[in-house]
Amino acid sequence: xxxxxxxxxxxxxAVAGLAAWAAWRPGRNTSARRRPAAHADRLTRLxxxxxxxxxxxxxxxxxxxACGVLLASTLLAAARPVNVDTVRPEQHNRDIVLCLxxxxxxxxxxxxxxxxxxxxxxxxxxxxxxxxxxxxxxxxVFPLTDDYEYAREQLALARDAFNGKPGTSGFLDGTWSGRxxxxxxxxxxxxxxxxxxxxxxxxxxxxxxxQQGSRQPRSRSxxxxxxxxxxxxxxxxxxxxxxxxxxxxARVYALNPGDFxxxxxxxxxGAQLRAAAESSGGAYYALDSPDAVPGIVRAVQETEKSxxxxxxxxxxxxLPNLPLAVALLAGLVLAVASWRLRP
Amino acid sequence: MTSLLHRVKSKMAIFAHRKARxxxxxxxxxxxxGRSLDFDDLRAYVPGDEVRDIDWKATARHGSPLIRxxxxxxxxxxxxxxxxxxxxxAEAAGGETKKDIxxxxxxxxxYLAHRHGDVVGLVCGDAHKxxxxxxxxxxxxxxxxxxxVHNNATMDSAASRxxxxxxxxxxTVKGRFLLFVVADEMVATPSLxxxxxxxxxxxxxxxxxxxxxxxxxxxxxxxxxxSSPLMGHLARSxxxxxxxxxxxxxxxxxxTDMLRQAGITGGSVSGSPEVITELFALLERHRRAG
Lengths: 343, 290
Prior knowledge:
- The complex is a heterodimer of chains A (343) and B (290).
- Chain A has 343 residues and is an alpha/beta fold.
- Chain A has helices at residues 8-24, 41-44, 47-78, 107-120, 148-162, 184-192, 201-210, 238-247, 269-279, 293-308, 321-341; strands spanning 2-3, 35-37, 81-87, 94-101, 128-134, 138-145, 219-225, 250-256, 283-286, 313-318.
- Chain A has eleven helices and ten strands.
- Chain A is rod-shaped, with a radius of gyration of 37 Å.
- Chain B is of the alpha/beta class and 290 residues long.
- Chain A binds chain B through residues 30-31, 33-49, 52-53, 56, 343, and chain B through 86-91, 98, 155, 160, 184-185, 187, 212-213, 215-216, 219-225, 227-235, 237, 239-240, 243-244, 247-248, 251.
């Protein structure tokens, strides 16, 4: 416990001491307004008077004590006793877009990813999650939302679809209407556009005005599950999409269930994907089996969480309860005592 | 500053007009006038004179009562005894300073004595010292005595201790005097009682008590003895007030008993307007007591 205005205490004590000195300073003639009487022992010898005087003195002591306690406790309260804690607030202002390659080779990995997120979404608090699937064209299944009920529902549907459950193939409708298949660059770019436009300094004022006051910046991450086998002619290459991600401050975490690179050539699909992911500040994971997905996703979540932890902040909590309660008590005692002491 | 004696005389003049003229003189004369068998002269009777002093034959001849006067055997000495300690600077029951009442009473008796040609002395003091002013005649001397009392009985004086003054009189005074003691509400003690008996054996004593202030009255009091304040509101609580009035009654009866046992005529006053009436009654009582 600390005192925020510690100087109030010595100041108040000094003032109280000065007042006490002024009240009882030596040489003050207390009998100035009193009238002289002889043979006071007529009264002071009486046992009844002595008993009354003793009671009076006891109440005086009580009143003086209560007065002192009241003064001390109100001084303490005026000095603002506070508890200063250092907290590292965990931020729940992440935006996560699941960007899943819906090509046949990926379905088991996709199913794992959506399954993990369906479960993660149960603990979400303020995070937003979106789902975009792509093959030759990208489909936004649901945009960034914090309606977790809905998100879980959609994720469950997606999982069933990826698992090839009968009657769910309609979920992936519309992902083959373009030319070619697995147009990774286009898909990633579509996912990136799920995020609101970038907040560069010029825009921020406008945005703040439009979005009712300043809002905390939200972190953006893309879970990109793909094997990076492009067949066709994408509008945007993977590099361009990665550049877009960087521009929008979105980190790309790439999961590659089929890293079949031959050697360390930079042109290999796995290496390209790694370069794209790392250029955006994310990471690249090559999966040996779909079972590894949950662990990797959780690892990604953890790293995200730790990078997102806010700066340590001092939280100041006022603790006026005890001194004020004591002051109230002392005040009550003082009131009773002064009622007893009334002439 | 007006003369203290002058004030006393004007008070007495008012009294004399209100009652019969010369009444106090008659009372004083019949009490203190030393008698002898040597006839002096006749004078008109004034109420208060001893009836046995009336010369009935002369009265019958004259048509109005006449009193025989005798040549005094000796000059009486009246010794005024009072307290000039702090207690006398306190308030009396009537609200005046006790000293003023005492000076009035001393002045009346002193003036009466002066009118009868007696000499008046003063013994006064406090716990530290006792002053004795020799008996002399004359108004100037009387004024000096009163002034001495007035100047010495202040708040700065030492504590009161009238026993010391009485002791002083018992030790130093030879011969038979008239002692006029003005005291306050002293408490009766065996030693004081013995002292008074011892004095009474030698002298004639008149004792006037100046009543002290009522400590349960609605006023903030402080004790002149040690300057400590008294808690008036505590004293006014029913229990304490009852105990106080009982204690005061006991104290008064103790003092009255002590004076009666010693054969001293006592009276009490609480304000200067009562002084002359009370002194008259006191002299009357003393005369009857013989």
